[in-house]
Amino acid sequence: MPYGFGLIVLSALFIGYRLSEYDYYSAEEGIGYMLGIIGGTMMLALLLYPLRKRIKFLRVIGSVKVWFGFHMVLGILGPLLILFHANFRLESTNSNVALFSMLIVSGSGVIGRYIYTKIHHG
């Protein structure tokens, strides 16, 4: 990922966390609810990448490199929107388990991609 994208994501995390104490929105309605819907949809769309590699008719739609690029972007933006949806707060046990599971999977993808680039030099 380009450094600019990473800087934007880190800035959004920092600003979102700092503003979360002001309760500008709620996860149950309005923009907070929509952030959850959009973030969840992005994470569901991540599943199209492995399907693209296995289902024949999807192979004609773009290259694996382009699909993987979308997979990486959605894998970062989806969880980011879910964090904003949750207003950077830990509430019920079920939502905590879901949130931490999502962050572990997303983080492992970022770390895996970093290791891959170091081993294969790009």
Describe this structure in words.
The chain has helices at 3-19, 30-45, 48-54, 64-85, 93-120. 74% of the residues lie in helices and 0% in strands. The chain is built from five helices and no strands. The model has no long low-confidence stretch (mean pLDDT 89). With 122 residues, the chain is mostly helical. The chain has one domain (28-120).
Which SSEs are present, and which pair or pack?
Blueprint lengths: L2 H17 L10 H16 L2 H7 L9 H22 L7 H28 L2
Helix pairs in contact: 1-4, 2-4, 3-4, 4-5
Give the tags.
mainly alpha, single chain, 122 residues, 5 helices, 74% helix
Query: Strand tally, please?
Result: 0
Order of helices and strands: HHHHH
The major pleated sheet works out as: none
Question: What is the CA–CA distance across the termini?
Answer: 10 Å
Low-confidence stretches: none
Structural class: mainly alpha
Overall pLDDT confidence: 89
Number of helices: 5
Q: What proportion of the residues form beta strands (DSSP E)?
A: under 5%
Number of domains: 1
Overall 3D shape: globular
Tell me roughly what share of residues is in helical segments.
over 70%
Rg (CA only): 16 Å
Summarize this entry quickly.
With 122 residues, the protein is mostly helical. It has five helices and no strands.
